[in-house]
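Backbone-to-sequence.
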């Protein structure tokens, strides 16, 4: 799909990877709907886009609930590209299994149900417009066990399977659904595993063992998945 002149909705666009995807889409000529539960971060992304003469608007959105998803799509209006990117790690707990049931519910509702509901609503909008592209942000964490945050890795494994299961939407509705699977990326989510300033102790060895990618690298892959019409139901790994 040619990005120039299209309209794109990006969730979790107020920070990290979502911000980088939004900036890259705007730079490629799309109007971007920046959606995030964090209004300060979302408005900053819009400012950064407008600063470079791009076209963007912010909508406050909570992807973890049906109500939040529905109102996000009403507010976003007609779009051609949907990036279901918002996600959280379990974070700020001593680690599995010392996690509240409420936190488990929130992680799964944000990372997995948020993506599935976001895809469902996107199919409605894109289908009416004759087709489009959906990109779901999963993670390499979804490819194998993650003993200290199995809720996160399970939530991302589900996104990978779900995305691959959506391949036939291309035949049925001219909608390509793909997933990007980042390795470790230098964004605030890393510190959010701990107290928001320092990462959780269990993540330190993994950080020491790799050089985290910059979010722009993930954004570049996302743009490639949008532009390349041969990419259907792909789960594309971007890792060091
Ligand atoms: N950074 C990494 O190492 C890494 C690796 C693999 C996958 N990912 C995935 O990339 C995506 C983006 O993460 P990031 O690293 O940019 O993290 P981040 O914390 O920098 O950004 C996540 C954004 O999502 C928003 N968000 C959280 N819950 C939301 C909700 N219910 N509704 C709407 N917005 C919500 C946050 O406010 C934040 O702006 C996530 O799905 C994450 O799981 C990140």
């Amino acid at each position: 799909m040619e990005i120039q002149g299209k309209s794109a909705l990006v969730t979790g666009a107020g920070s990290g990877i979502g911000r980088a995807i939004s900036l890259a889409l705007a730079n490629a000529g799309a109007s971007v709907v920046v959606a995030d539960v964090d209004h300060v971060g979302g408005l900053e992304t819009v400012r950064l886009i407008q600063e470079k003469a791009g076209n963007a608007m912010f909508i406050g959105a909570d992807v973890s609930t049906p109500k939040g998803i529905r109102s996000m799509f009403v507010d976003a209006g007609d779009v051609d590209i949907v990036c279901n990117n918002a996600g959280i790690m379990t974070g700020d707990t001593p680690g599995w299994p010392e996690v509240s049931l409420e936190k488990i519910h929130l992680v799964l509702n944000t990372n997995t149900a948020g993506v599935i509901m976001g895809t469902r609503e996107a199919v409605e909008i894109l289908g009416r417009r004759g087709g489009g592209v959906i990109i779901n942000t999963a993670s390499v964490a979804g490819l194998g066990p993650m003993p200290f945050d199995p809720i996160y890795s399970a939530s991302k494994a589900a996104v990978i399977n779900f995305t691959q299961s959506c391949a036939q939407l291309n035949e049925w509705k001219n909608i390509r659904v793909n997933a990007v699977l980042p390795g470790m990326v230098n964004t605030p989510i890393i510190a959010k595993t701990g107290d928001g300033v320092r990462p959780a102790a269990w993540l330190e060895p993994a950080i020491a063992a790799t050089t985290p990618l910059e979010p722009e690298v993930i954004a570049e892959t996302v743009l490639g998945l949008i532009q390349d019409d041969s990419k259907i139901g792909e789960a594309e790994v971007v890792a060091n």
